[in-house]
Design a protein that fits this description.
The structure is a single chain. By secondary structure, the protein is an alpha/beta fold. The chain is about 25% helix and about 20% strand. The chain starts with 5 loop residues before the first helix and ends with a helix.
């Protein structure tokens, strides 16, 4: 296998501009392959590598553009407009939750914060007991977790990776008596620039761009970017391929229509776009659960302003996590302060001179992101024609979700005050801050549940999951214990959408693991799926 120098050569990707210049392709063309994979993030890239390594002809279709890591500028403003889905404005119907998602070759692994967590055994035990998924019982997936750990260089932050923001969180936790620990990340010799959310130009982040995708192409896999799959093709209860549209990523101009004939289709477009594709394709949905059960792990950001200059945006973006409340309440807190664009999460930005002064205070700030587990009551729906329709994301907090969000934000604020913050900025749509812990409760009480929680807290989600949940029974799940869509042979899903229940852990590690598991199940049925 030839090793690829990623900085010099990049990943071999066929882009819209390449298709437009190729006279042999034209406005309409077709491709034949063994496996076509929709999406190039954690799930898709892992399946691509595993199946290509096993000798299968693999084609990966990515709707986003190809952005070589050497071209990242470490400017979050630049990245938001080019590499994030919908320019980081992908939102629910009430636009009070932003779903931040990578829209590029490598998917969300390219713009993620590198946090890797393994869910507690209780989660896998529940999946085994309640959904009959014995292959996912505790310890059953250990070999996949270990393999991913080795592939992605997953390890605990070392002392030099704990920056000033993280140290403020540690100070607050020590005074409050809260448990904390260094974060586990997938990095290799981190450059400590703090720009993870803008993409890693030095290839220290072990994203799909520098791991599974180049490994897959070294085994013969092909990657097309700028290629939106519009529907899965089926005949006689079996997946036969996909149809897709290739567009210029800058102008939106149609370049080509492409049909891919494949023996196996793997959908790995993420928990929002995988169910949308299956809905557009009108796959059988006996359970009525396709696109339902979406959990989002809503998080809010609490910022503390300190007397001294911290430059808390320098160093490893995420240094430590507060795990005191993980098992009791499903709360996880991560130290993190990105670039000034992050202040968009704060309601009190003022205008004119006051705005300038507020922005100048950024170097005095530390940040703590508060994640709360939700009940998985959200949904995604495709409305209209498969070509001209639109996605609809519905998620509003229940009163219980709202109370948990408020409790998590209050805990984060108390940690900031315990660390010596002179002011804490609260994550509400109303301009709201507290100047001491003694007025915190009164300030927090000003944020009301309102109409179904709309416009109460500024919430974001990096981690939706559960919209194509796995289970034995086609009456209450979308995919089987192998990851195959109930009722459609050869059509698999391999991303966070197959999680049977909400989880409080960051999902990327588990997505890689389940993608390996699904790959193994596909190969176990080699004779029924693949015809020479």
């Amino acid at each position: 296998m030839r090793l690829i120098n990623m900085q010099r050569e990049g990943v071999p990707v066929t882009q819209a501009k390449d298709v437009a210049r190729d006279p042999t392709l034209g406005r309409n063309f077709s491709i034949q392959t063994d496996v076509v994979i929709v999406g190039s993030g954690a799930g898709g890239s892992t399946v691509a590598y595993e199946l290509a390594k096993a000798g299968k002809r693999v084609l990966i279709l990515e709707s986003g553009r190809y952005w070589p890591s050497a071209e990242f500028t470490e400017s979050l403003g630049d990245t938001l407009s080019t590499v994030y889905r919908d320019q980081a404005a992908q939102a629910n119907t009430t636009t009070d939750v932003l779903f931040l998602e990578g829209h590029c070759v490598g998917g969300s692994t390219v713009i993620g914060a590198c946090v890797m967590q393994r869910p507690p055994d209780e989660i896998f035990q529940r999946w085994s007991d309640e959904f009959g998924l014995k292959a996912l019982a505790p310890r059953s997936l250990d070999r996949f977790f270990l393999k991913t750990q080795e592939h992605l260089n997953i390890g605990l932050n070392e002392a030099h990776e704990i920056n000033t923001t993280a140290h403020k969180v540690i100070q607050g936790c020590e005074k409050m008596g809260y448990s904390w620990r260094p974060v586990t990340r997938n990095v290799k010799n981190c450059a400590l620039t703090g720009h993870c959310l803008a993409g890693c130009p030095s290839d220290r982040k072990m994203s799909a761009l520098v791991t599974h995708l180049p490994w897959a192409t070294a085994h013969g896999a092909r990657i097309f970017s700028d290629t939106e799959v519009t529907r899965v093709l089926m005949r006689g209860g079996r997946a036969t391929g996909v149809e897709a549209i290739i567009r210029d990523p800058d102008t939106g101009t149609l370049v080509s229509n492409v049909r891919v004939d494949a023996q196996v289709v793997v959908v790995a477009a993420g928990a929002i776009h995988s169910p949308l594709l299956l809905q557009r394709s009108q796959v059988p949905d006996r359970s009525g659960q396709l696109g339902k059960n979406m959990a989002i792990q809503p998080f809010t950001q609490v910022l503390g302003t300190f007397k001294e200059e911290l430059m808390g945006f320098q160093g490893a973006l995420v240094g430590v996590e507060v795990d005191q409340f993980l098992r009791s309440d499903g709360f996880t807190f991560y130290s993190a302060l990105a670039e000034p664009e992050q202040l968009m999460a704060v309601g009190e930005q003022e205008a004119g001179d006051e705005h300038i002064n507020f922005m100048k205070s950024f170097k005095h700030m530390a940040g703590l992101n508060a994640f709360a587990i939700d009940k998985g009551q959200g949904s995604v729906t495709w409305e209209g024609d498969h070509l001209t329709g639109r996605k609809v994301i519905r998620w509003s907090p229940s009163r219980e979700d709202f109370a948990r969000t408020a409790q998590a934000a209050s805990i984060a604020a108390r940690i900031m005050f315990s660390a010596g913050a002179e002011r804490v900025w609260l994550p509400s749509f109303e301009k709201l801050h507290a100047d001491s812990v003694f007025e915190l409760d009164e300030k927090m009480a000003r944020v009301s549940y309102g109409i179904n929680g709309i416009y109460s807290y500024r919430m974001n989600s990096f981690t939706p999951h559960g919209t194509c949940r796995m289970g034995l029974d086609s009456a209450d799940s979308v995919v089987s214990s192998d990851g195959e869509v109930h009722g459609v042979s050869g059509l698999y899903v391999a991303d966070a959408s197959i999680f049977p229940t909400p989880v409080s852990s960051t999902p990327q590690w588990t997505v890689h693991v389940l993608a390996q598991y699904v790959s193994e199940r596909i190969l176990a049925r080699d004779s029924s799926h693949f015809v020479s």
